[in-house]
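pipeline/complex-builder :: batch 7 item 3
reading input block
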Amino acid sequence: MSARGTLARRNERAWAVGILVGLGALALLPLARPRDDVVNFVFVILLSITLAQSWNIAAGYAGQVNLGHAAFFGLGALVARTLWIAGTPIGLGMLAGTAVATAFALLIGVAAFRLRGAYFAIGTLALGEILRSTVNNVLPEISTLPVTVIGGYRLAHRFYLALALAALSVLVVAGLAGSRLGLGMQAIRDDEEAAEASGVGAVALKLTALALSTALAGLAGGLFAYYHISYYPAHPFSPHWTFDALLMTFIGGVGTLQGPVLGAVLYVALKEYLALRWVDLHLLIFGVLFIAIVLALPGGLVQAAARVRRLMSARGR
Amino acid sequence: MSVLAQQIVLGLLIGGLYGLAAAGLGLVFGVLKVLNVAHGELIMLGGYGAFWIVTLLGIDPFVSLALVVPLALLLGVALYVALFGFVVRADEETRVKNSLLIGFGLALALHALAVRLWTADERSVVVGYGGSVLSVGGLSLPLVRLASLAVAFALIGALHLLLTRWRWGKAVRAAAEDWQAALLTGIDVRRAYVLAFAMGTALAGAAGTLVSVGYSVSPSIGLEWTLKALIVIVLAGLGSTFGIFVGGLVLGVAEALSASMFGGPYREVAGLVLFVVILVARPRGLFGR
């Protein structure tokens, strides 16, 4: 068991290095003067990696399926955007947004963690919807950047920031996975009662996981606010951000370091390809294809790869 | 005062539909331990089914239930065989996860299909007596919505009878309690699962029919109805069929009250706040066991 554990950890480290090297290589992309749509496409992948990885911390490691994740993404975006337009540097705005998202998560976490399993999922879904419809009612006007800001808009700045956040999210999960903290979270995920009985403080650890997860989501929200020229303030609160993060994580492999990254790449690329190839049928095809993927690979890409490897080694013997 | 009473009555009338929508979702969730987030899309399909049956055959929408419900039963069996049957093979935690994924894909596909086939326009069934209003003590009760509430109540009653009196209904309840024990006593659990899913889909179809008569359907109503149904399930708990119906009425009235006190835009917010408060205070719901 422990030999397998060490092997898994070595495997994880290899993935972390590989992903970071890949992200590092992407830093050279703007030097090649690519078309803007290429940069935008990679930007969406990077934002998705951050969002999926942030969701993965609470769901994959601590086993808490948070269906209100969009609320924290939205809060990060709302605070960062408001402060930035008012003249605060975007970095400070994003930090403030992250702080608000995390503080809100801790506040509701205390109540929401009275719920277990599917009830936690449903409760957080409702919380997210409360925030979305409140923001929609209070701020119905579209938020557009002032002309002076649009004049100085550089896509490359957004791209590098997205790259940095994606790398940060991978580093956080890599650091968490093998740590005492991360192991405690996984113990709770696998069996909460057993974990408590062996001295793991479940509530504190679940709150820590939620705080880490929502802090990253808040940062991603800040990035969204920095990137988009105009959007409705309620848009980043929309449940589809939660579902996107969830779907990417599950397609890739929940509770693994590389899963959300692989899932985000596949999900965004597939959706983009279908949208270009079958303009008005693409959502229908995407939905059907998605169901097929879930049925064919119940544990995501990571488990499917492991199964293939096992088959290969069995044949080799 | 009479304005408030009128609001409460309208809340009760829509609350019955919330209850019916939730009964189907609750049946599937309670028995299969599967969270079908495409339940609202099934309601949407039921609404369109009724709309086209009424338009093409020229029959009364309430009579169209006699066609919509069997069709929805068949659709439920097909969906179970094609999709959800694979999900229930996994352990309970994986079931919820995979059903979320499949339900999401299904919701996306059904929504896109509906837009493709029927455009994104809102539609509702128009009947000759659609404008008729029953006046009781200064309150006006739209006849169609009143009839919908009565039909919803009758369907809930029928479901209750099926689950408590019918052999297979009892099998469904046994499978919900403990499927392993049910298997040991010789119950065909797989068949009970198919039946529960088909009945859940039939209830969604019936709810959709009533929605298309008293209100309106469009391809995008799915998520809203799924959320309402989820809220009612948590409000009421999974214990009893009638409890879920009462939960629907409670949600309808709460929404109506908050809309009249804080204004229309806050309709949903108050319902959701109520939901979270109950979820935290009574995690098993008002009538849950």
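note: Strands of chain B lie at 133-136, 139-142.
queue -> next item
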